[in-house]
Amino acid sequence: MIPAVRAIARAAMAARPITLSELQARAELMARIDRSYLVPVEIFADFAARLTDPRRPGGPFQVLCINGRRWFGYHSVHYDTPGLQTFHDHRQGRRHRYRIRERLYEDSGERQFEIKLRGRRGETLKRRQPLLPGEATLGRGPRGFLASVLHGTYGIAAPGELVPSLVTDYRRATFVADGQRITCDADLVCRDAGTGRSVRADGGLVLVETKSAVTGHLTEADRLLHTYGLRAAEFTKYCGAMAALRPGLTSHQWRRVVREAFPRAAA
């Protein structure tokens, strides 16, 4: 088993379970502050043990459990214009930027059409709509939803042409406490939908994302990760993977994180 997958599995099995409905009640966080960290498995083991310790003040972080499973397979297809407009909007730090994807929850078969936007205070706004069995990802319903979201949020029109740009697969365990959620991803594999080239993330790293209410304050998890000498990385799966797969797209801003997350691609 890949070390990072083993690490999230062990942490998940050691934690108390929580149902999906309980998680949504405690920390659905459709508007939130996200921070990403690349965490070596040795540090992750201690980090997770401290957060899920039954003696933690306020009670331990619990792990999402659905039908007895505590870590899950995620398959996402990201969409962009042929010229990669949404990628370059993120690269340039534009105020009105967003990402479009279809997410498949492999263990349940559920599909969601999702749009992630940047809010006025730098927060992440997530909008999603279930996809019916057999429904085309960019069919009339999802395209209408996309147009409504972009017009309502930014007052802009949806792109006229969208194509698959990146496919990602990974394993995830999710931990939650009141108002906080931590996703822990391992075995990330990314495939360029245009060229077919693939990269795999370092198997000794767990991609940890802290998600909290829009307050601007560091969470307990952020502060704990800082004690290990770790700092949040300018990293999203979409932009990081595209920078690794097509290094000519960017200059310098993601080189360090790409070298760390995808060392074989950087080499």
TrEMBL record:
Domain VTC: 63-245
Short name of one Pfam family: VTC
Name of this protein: VTC domain-containing protein
Species this chain originates from: Streptomyces chrestomyceticus
